[in-house]
Amino acid sequence: MTAPVPAFSAPPGQLLLDMQNIHKAFAGVTALDNASLSVAAGEVHALIGQNGAGKSTIIKVLTGAYRRDGGTVTFGGQPVDFASPLAAQRGGIATIYQEVNLVPLRTVAENIFLGREPKKWGLIQWPAMNAEATRLLTDLGIQLDVKEPLGSFSTAIQQMVALARAVSINARLVIMDEPTSSLNEREVETLFGVIRGLKARGVSVIFVSHRLDELYAVCDRITVMRDGRTVYAGNMTDISRLQLVEQMLGREIKNVGAQTGFVRHEGVRGAKPLLNVGSVVRGTRLQGASVEVGEGEVVGLAGLLGSGRSELARVIFGADQPDSGEVRFGGQPVHFRSPSDAIKAGLGFCSEDRKAEGIVPELSVRENLTLALLPRLSKAGVVDTQRQAEVVERFISRLGIKTSNPDQPIRELSGGNQQKVLLARWLAMNPRLLILDEPTRGIDVGAKAEIQRLIGELAEGGLGVLMISSELEELIEGCQHVTVLHDGRTVANLAGDEITEPLLLHAMAQGLEPEDMPCPPTPPQVRA
User: Fold this and answer.
1) Is 503 helix (H, G, I), strand (E, B) or coil?
2) Which of 59, 211, 271, 372 is the most buried (most CB within 10 A)?
């Protein structure tokens, strides 16, 4: 292990926020242990750590969602102990969560001014509110009808509306929890421009992200947490990416060349085709999409936002019906009319949005893990609890799921462990093909590497994997083949050494076949 990097704190007179010796426990389990977080006035401060490191807990302690068990919090030079998030908001702290915490059925303008509507003689001043909402969004580079329901817009737009709400309260500190997870490249640049604008006005920003490139692009200082403790605080310029990862993991990284946990294998020699999808059309989103997966292969599905990756996965799994095209599974033409048909045939699907389409938050780890398996565990409507317990115990051990016990509510687990439960749910079904849509999105470095290694091991065991990923490193290091979509069409199929960043980026951005690309390192072959 490299020597620890010395801690750093801004001079006391410059501090806007100073949290020291923070303790918090839940049912006897320590979540924060002597943690600290100091943010200077007018700085962008990164807060990072593995899932379960304590990032969300320390933010919720600050904003009054949790009551701290010990420690001190000073904001603007005054001791504070906010009783609720509303009290924190009134005190000058705005929080934007990864899962947008707004009201979909209310209009965009109503969401921006929720609880703070401009009134005259007790009546809401609708024209003034709509005009101000339009101005706030225009300043963020967003043009839309603020009188439309928020739920009619994309997740990315909803994220920007949440940001507009935070800006509108004239906060002194804005907390952004994974704000770029649903944004495309242009929207990320717009967000960074807004952050720099806030900084120029003297507003501080706490920026929570797992994307190291973003931290170095926009942040001044950083705090690293691990196991509920603050293990490093200092300038971004004083610590390398490798040191950051080592601080998060608490151990030295041996293989500095690899950027993911994948260990690429060559696939099964002479493997039989497992999935063949040809020229699928659905509405305007899919306009001739094709992909192939063989037994024991990890095939990547690449493309920019809106390229049709998730839409193609939903068609394959029977969640949506194609207008035309062919799907063959195991050498036979299939037409899955619902996901249950696909599951019976041997497919599993981990959706991109594990909160909305994966986990059932109020159910336990045990119940979530065996949800798809219940028909096989039941007789006359009665679940065989002994067999269920055996399955749960086996997969908790196999995947290294960190939980206090199988009956712990899954909502209390970290994002990485929730994703492992979803993987276990499908592995318990003994599938032939597993479709993974952004399997490591919003997951810390350590859990990400564990899941990546697991995917590789499953493929080596003969499982076919179709993996959608926005991270080029995952595609380059983890896949034997990569299919690239552009505007709903398959535009490239790369294999082995052909899977390079330049070729992937060119196909994703330009929609060109690889043979049309300038100066490829080797002539890529399009798979039949």
Assistant:
1) helix
2) 59
Residues 483, 277: Cα–Cα separation, whole Å = 12
How deeply is 122 buried, as exposed, middle or buried, from its count of CB atoms within 10 A (0-12, 13-18, 19+)? Answer: exposed
pTM: 0.57
Burial of 373 (0-12, 13-18, 19+ CB in 10 A): buried
Close Cβ partners of 456 (under 8 Å, ≥ 6 residues apart): 261, 262, 263, 264, 265, 298, 478
Angstrom CA distances, 232 to 19, 48, 229, 247, 304, stand at: 14, 10, 9, 7, 35
Distances (CA, A) of 377 to 173, 398, 408, 429, 494: 51, 20, 21, 11, 42
DSSP string, 455-477: HHHHHHTT-EEEEE-S-HHHHHH
**One-letter amino acid of 477:** E
Q: What angle do CA 372, 273, 490 make, to 5 degrees?
A: 90
Phi/psi of residue 311, each to 5°?
-65, -40
- Digitized pLDDT (tens) for each residue of the chain, 528 residues in all: 333 333 334 444 489 999 999 999 987 778 999 999 999 999 999 999 876 788 989 999 999 999 999 999 999 999 999 999 989 988 999 888 766 678 888 999 999 998 888 888 989 899 999 999 999 888 777 788 999 998 888 777 887 888 888 888 888 999 998 887 667 677 788 788 888 888 988 899 999 987 777 889 999 999 999 889 999 999 999 988 778 877 876 755 444 345 565 655 555 445 678 999 999 999 878 989 999 999 999 999 988 766 888 899 999 999 999 999 999 999 999 999 999 999 999 999 988 777 777 888 889 999 999 988 888 888 888 888 899 999 999 888 888 888 888 999 998 888 778 888 988 898 888 899 999 988 887 676 777 777 788 888 888 888 899 999 877 888 888 899 999 998 788 999 998 888 888 888 778 766 554 444 444 333 333 333
486, 289 Cβ separation under 8 angstroms: no
> Kind and range of the H or E element at 399?
helix 385-399
Give the pairing type, strands 332-333 and 324-329.
Answer: antiparallel
CA separation for the pair 518, 507 (Å, rounded): 11
What is the distance between the alpha carbons of residues 447 and 455, in angstroms, rounded to a whole number? 12
Q: What is the DSSP letter of 230?
A: E
Contact assessment for residue 5 and residue 60, using Cβ atoms and an 8 Å cutoff: no
E strands, 5-163, in order: 15-26, 29-40, 44-49, 70-75, 78-79, 93-96, 119-120, 123-124
